[in-house]
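Sequence design from tokenized structure. All designs in this work follow the same two-part layout: the structure record, then the generated sequence. An example of the structure record is given first.
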């Protein structure tokens, strides 16, 4: 069922991290809505394949921009490649996580994570919000995570970056109210994507299907600042409202030690 998003926002849609997971599903659902697409990620072959398929299936125009947004200055290259195309939707989806004891992960990994998860969405929004505001309509989805709702021991920097994304989305939602520009932060939990493998998680839960998660974000545009798809995620994301933050951190730490590292929290703390 179409949501009428293209009639509402018009223009092209920019999707970062489009080569897999949620990004591919955002591209598919926006193409079905009638958007021409700017697709960016590191893997050119996957982007080309996706662009060709969506062009054949939906008759939409596509622009493939192979880039690593984890490199400083890459967002400026993306904006330059887009040129004078009128942008109506921005999907800030690219990101990654890495699990382990804080000190066991090298600093370069954290720096790249902060660049990709925080700096790139900020730069992307900063580039396109003025034009969206001037045209009086547009949509922005910033992909956060359930991890952005609570402390995440053994996933500390990833959780911190996703808290940044969530606060950015909710602040822009309020700042842009009344302008015709809708913003939503998407906070998925475990989802069937490549994320678990890339994050070096020891256990990969079945998770939610990515299609319905993306659909929940698109439905939420114009209706609220953020969305936690699924009842279980809504409950988990509300823990910090009712329990002391120390309790939430302790509970989350035990869960993440088992799911990410395959260890008890005590053993994870000791590096065993």
């Amino acid at each position: 069922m179409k949501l009428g998003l293209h009639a509402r926002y018009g223009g092209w849609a920019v999707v970062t991290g489009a080569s897999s997971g949620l990004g591919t599903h955002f591209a598919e659902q926006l193409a079905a809505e009638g958007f021409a697409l700017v697709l960016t990620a590191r893997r050119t072959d996957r982007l080309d394949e996706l662009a060709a398929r969506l062009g054949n299936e939906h008759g939409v125009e596509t622009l493939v921009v192979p880039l690593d947004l984890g490199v400083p200055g890459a967002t400026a290259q993306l904006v330059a490649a887009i040129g004078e195309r009128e942008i109506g939707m921005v999907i800030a989806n690219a990101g990654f996580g890495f699990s382990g004891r804080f000190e066991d992960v090298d600093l370069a990994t954290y720096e790249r994570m902060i660049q990709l998860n925080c700096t790139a969405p900020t730069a992307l929004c900063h580039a396109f919000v003025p034009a969206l505001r001037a045209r009086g309509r547009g949509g922005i989805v910033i992909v956060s995570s359930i991890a952005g709702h609570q402390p995440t021991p053994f996933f500390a920097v990833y959780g911190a970056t996703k808290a940044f994304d969530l606060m950015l989305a909710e602040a822009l939602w309020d700042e842009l109210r009344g302008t015709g520009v809708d913003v939503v932060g998407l906070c998925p939990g475990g989802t069937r994507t490549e994320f678990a493998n890339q994050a070096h998680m020891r256990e990969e839960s079945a998770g939610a299907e990515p299609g319905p998660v993306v659909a929940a974000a698109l439905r939420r545009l114009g209706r609220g600042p953020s969305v936690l798809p699924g009842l279980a995620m809504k409950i988990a994301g509300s823990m910090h409202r009712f329990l002391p933050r120390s309790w939430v951190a302790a509970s989350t730490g035990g869960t993440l030690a088992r799911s990410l590292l395959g260890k008890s929290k005590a053993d994870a703390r000791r590096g065993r």
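The mean pLDDT is 89. We note this feature because it recurs in several other targets discussed in the main text.
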